[in-house]
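Thread title: Can someone regenerate the structure for this chain?

I was given the following input by a collaborator and told the matching structure tokens would be attached. They weren't. Posting the sequence so someone can regenerate them.
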Amino acid sequence: MILAIDIGNTNIVIGCFDESGVLFKERVSTNRTATDLEYAATMKTALDMHDIVKSDISGAIVSSVVPSVTNTVTRAIEKLYSVKALVIGPGIKTGLSIKIDNPAQLGSDLVVDAVAGTNEYPVPQIIIDMGTATTFSVIDSKKDYLGGIITTGMAVSTDALISRTSQLPRFSFDTPKKVIGTNTVDCLKSGLMYSNAAILDGIVERIEEELGEKCTVIATGGLSHLVVPLCKKEIILDDDLLLKGLMLIYNKNTK
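Best answer:
Regenerated them for you:
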């Protein structure tokens, strides 16, 4: 059984996989000041909840966009499970052909998403990852990674709006009952959810126009399940996409 961890700016996804596929996943908050012992305790708690013990773990792989946390987490893995984690970065075989100006600039999470996307779904494709930022990755019919789009994530937009206004309250990310809100909270929910759905629809449409062909569209990330049902475009929701990519990359580098 392989431990798979994705370190994002807001959340860390902890999961495990074996030959049969992804076994489970949990999300915890990213803490830039936590020690390796604290992260080890968090990982142990997550795995204990799924009845996974130390002897079950034979390897580990880590994807990270937070360099200051990467080494802390890898030390925690080694301390807890006595395995050295494979970290996505230079020298790791992915099989992905990256055509952007500077391939080294491509975030490891986007690389992993694209590896899974091209393995599992028809190309050309657009992969949407809704996290701290909302990203769009574009892969052509030859499975080349052409580039993408980065825009503000839902939670960041909400925090900015609330922090800069005096009378707007914080609210939960729930789907509004209708588009036209009749109170402040419903207006905020409608504005957030439907504006993000419109962003997804609009950007997908513009990418397809630029490519000159229809694309398979896949969405993943912590907030995608809230927004995708509100979209007019056909979008596949795959919340395990990143863990599937980590599994593919781990196997490519260890077998």
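The radius of gyration is 19 Å.
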